[in-house]
Specification:
By secondary structure, this protein is of the alpha/beta class. It contains 14 helices and 16 strands.
Length: 429
C-alpha cells in the first residue's frame, strides 16, 4: 500500500469479480497502520490486515455496527429485500457482520398498524444464515444483538425469558449474542391513577435468568443514564451476570442531556456504549446542508445523499441544518459541517466517516442505520484509522460553539418515546 503523510484510501474495482476492496490506513504517531477491507459477497477478496475490532462482553465485534431500525420487507406477505440481503452478504464477506435489531422492529407498513413484531429479527437471521451457507466460515463470526421491549403487561422476570425465547426463534439461533432491555420502564398508561411502580429490577432479574439458562451469551441495556446503568450493573453482578453494554443516542451533535456523562461513566465501569443516531439522523453526513456540501455530493451514490424521511422529520432537520432564527440560530450546523469538511478533505475521508470515527475515539461503537451496500462501504471506511486528539478537540469545540444539540426530528426523539397513548419523556441524567 502506498503510504501518505496522513492516511490513504485505495479502492480497486474488478469488473470480472465485481469485487470492491477498500483499504483504509492511518498512521498514529509511531504505531503501525491498520487496514480494513470491504469484500464482495463472493468472498474472493480477503482482508490483508487484522480488522479494527473491539471487545463487547465475550464478543469480538468491528468498531462500527449495522443498525436495522429502518429495514423493511419489499413484500407484504414475504420477508424479502434484495438490497438488505446484499448488505448482510457484503458485511459477512468483510468480517464486519455486527447487526443491532429489536423484537419491535418490523416492516414499515405492518409497524404503522401496530403489527410486525419480530419481522426484522426474522429477516436479519434469515439473511445471515444465507450468507453463512453461501460463503462458508469467516475470520469473524456474525454477531446479532436484539432487544426486549418493556410494556405494561410484561410484569415478571419470566416475561423477559419468554420474549427472549421468541427472539431466539425469530433469529434462528441457539443463543442470542447480546440481549438488551430496550429502555427503562417508562411506559405507564395508568400513571394518573398512581400505578407507575418501576419494573426495571424485575427485568434485570429476567436478563439474569436468560443468561443462566444459556439463552444468551451477553446482556445489555439501552437508554440508561449514569445512575441507572451503575445500579443495573451492581444488581446483575449479585447474580453473577456481567453487564456488557448500554445503547444510547450519541453523536458529535448529541453529547448533551447527559449523553457524554453516560459515555464517560460506562467507560469507567467497563460497560461498552453502543451509539445509535451517530449521524444525528443524517445531519452529520451533509445531506441537509445543501449550500456548503453541493460540490461534495456530486457523483455520489443517491443512498448517501438523499433522505428517506417523513415531512415532519425533514422540516425539523432543515431547521437544524440552516437554522430558523428562533430555536436554532441562522446558519444552523454549517460552522460544524465546515470544520468536518476540512478534516475530511485533509484525510481523504467523507463527512460520515469523520462522524463515525469521532464516536469511536470517544470509546463507543457507532451503530448507524444501513440500507444499501454503498452505505455499508462508506461506514466501514471509518475503520482502521483514528482522528488525532487535536482534531477531536476541534470538532468538540465547534459543536459546543453552536449553542444547541440534536434532540431528534419528527416523532423520533432522543429523550422521548411515542407509546400509543402519548409521549413518555426520559433523561439520561
Amino acid at each position: 500500500m502506498k503510504k501518505q503523510s496522513m492516511n490513504a484510501i485505495t479502492m480497486k474495482r474488478s469488473l470480472a469479480t465485481r469485487s470492491i476492496i477498500l483499504v483504509v490506513a492511518c498512521v498514529l504517531g509511531h504505531k503501525k497502520s491498520d487496514a480494513y477491507v470491504v469484500s464482495s459477497p463472493s468472498g474472493i477478496d480477503t482482508p490483508t490486515a487484522a480488522p479494527d475490532t473491539t471487545q463487547l462482553g465475550t464478543l469480538e465485534v468491528p468498531h462500527v455496527g449495522i443498525g436495522t431500525i429502518s429495514w423493511s420487507s419489499n413484500d407484504l406477505f414475504n420477508l424479502e429485500n434484495k438490497d438488505l440481503e446484499n448488505v448482510v452478504a457484503t458485511a459477512h464477506a468483510s468480517d464486519a457482520a455486527f447487526f443491532d435489531t429489536a423484537e419491535r422492529y418490523g416492516s414499515h407498513m405492518k409497524t404503522a398498524l401496530g403489527l410486525g413484531y419480530g419481522d426484522t429479527e426474522k429477516m436479519t437471521g434469515k439473511f445471515v444464515q444465507r450468507a453463512k451457507l453461501s460463503q462458508g466460515p469467516r475470520t469473524m463470526e456474525p454477531v446479532i444483538a436484539t432487544k426486549f421491549t418493556p410494556i405494561p403487561w410484561r410484569t415478571t422476570a419470566q416475561s423477559v425469558v419468554d420474549a427472549c425465547e421468541q427472539s431466539r426463534k425469530n433469529l434462528g439461533v441457539e443463543q442470542i449474542d447480546l440481549y438488551q432491555i430496550h429502555m427503562p420502564d417508562i411506559v405507564h398508561p395508568l400513571r394518573f391513577l398512581g400505578k407507575d411502580a418501576s419494573k426495571d429490577e424485575i427485568y434485570w432479574d429476567g436478563l439474569a435468568e436468560c443468561y443462566h439458562q444459556g439463552l444468551v451469551k451477553n446482556v445489555g441495556v439501552c437508554n440508561y443514564g449514569p445512575t441507572l446503568v451503575e445500579k443495573c450493573q451492581e444488581a446483575l453482578a449479585k447474580r453473577g451476570v456481567p453487564l456488557a453494554s448500554n445503547q444510547i443516542a450519541y453523536s458529535l451533535l448529541g453529547r448533551h442531556n447527559g449523553a457524554q456523562e453516560t459515555v464517560d461513566k460506562c467507560n469507567d465501569l467497563g460497560v461498552k456504549v453502543l451509539a445509535c443516531y451517530p449521524f444525528a439522523m443524517g445531519l452529520l453526513t451533509g445531506k441537509y446542508s445543501k449550500d456548503i456540501t453541493r460540490a461534495y455530493k456530486e457523483g455520489r451514490d443517491l443512498s448517501l445523499t438523499e433522505a428517506k424521511k417523513t415531512t415532519l422529520e425533514l422540516q425539523d432537520l432543515a431547521k437544524y441544518a440552516d437554522g430558523d432564527g428562533l430555536e436554532i440560530p441562522i446558519g444552523g450546523i454549517n460552522p460544524l459541517i465546515t470544520t468536518m469538511l476540512s478534516i475530511a478533505e485533509k484525510r481523504d475521508k467523507t463527512l460520515a466517516q469523520v462522524a463515525l470515527n469521532f464516536v469511536i475515539c470517544k470509546g463507543a461503537i457507532p451503530i448507524p442505520g444501513c440500507r444499501t451496500v454503498a452505505q455499508l462501504e462508506e461506514n466501514l471506511g471509518a475503520l482502521g484509522w483514528r482522528l488525532s486528539e487535536t482534531e477531536v478537540k476541534m470538532l468538540e469545540l465547534e459543536a459546543e460553539k453552536l449553542g444547541f444539540g440534536f434532540d431528534g426530528a419528527g416523532f423520533k426523539r432522543t429523550g422521548e418515546k411515542f407509546v400509543g397513548y402519548g409521549i413518555e419523556k426520559f433523561r439520561l441524567e
